[in-house]
Amino acid sequence: MNVNTSKNTSAATNPWLDWTNLALGLFLIASPWLALGGSTAILWNAVICGGVIACAAGAAIVKPSPGAQKTSLWFGVWLLIAPWVLAFWSNAGATWTSVLVGLCVAIIAGRQLSELKRSARA
């Protein structure tokens, strides 16, 4: 008896959500030069977090995995608190960018992770 036990995880997630996280990561990389200005903390936080989010989203597009989604989720959560941890909360543009991008990335990654777990149980 030939039983195929492999799981099709690509059907479990919505690729357009991963493309959205990729776009958000690229936007975050560019954001310090889009008139947000500010300190080197703002610059490096945006470039590093944006790069990691974009890479994780790219990996999730190629092969959906919980690891890529967890990475995006944790970096999204970091972006939510980064303005206060790195003390750039007084820069409204950078703060709103960090919080809104972080919120969107975390929600998308959380939903994708939930779909991956649901498909693994099925």
TrEMBL record:
<feature type="transmembrane region" description="Helical">
    <location>
        <begin position="96"/>
        <end position="114"/>
    </location>
</feature>
<feature type="transmembrane region" description="Helical">
    <location>
        <begin position="73"/>
        <end position="90"/>
    </location>
</feature>
<feature type="transmembrane region" description="Helical">
    <location>
        <begin position="16"/>
        <end position="36"/>
    </location>
</feature>
<keyword id="KW-1133">Transmembrane helix</keyword>
<dbReference type="Pfam" id="PF03779">
    <property type="entry name" value="SPW"/>
</dbReference>
<keyword id="KW-0812">Transmembrane</keyword>
<dbReference type="InterPro" id="IPR005530">
    <property type="entry name" value="SPW"/>
</dbReference>
<feature type="domain" description="SPW repeat-containing integral membrane">
    <location>
        <begin position="16"/>
        <end position="109"/>
    </location>
</feature>
<keyword id="KW-0472">Membrane</keyword>
<protein>
    <recommendedName>
        <fullName>SPW repeat-containing integral membrane domain-containing protein</fullName>
    </recommendedName>
</protein>
<feature type="transmembrane region" description="Helical">
    <location>
        <begin position="42"/>
        <end position="61"/>
    </location>
</feature>
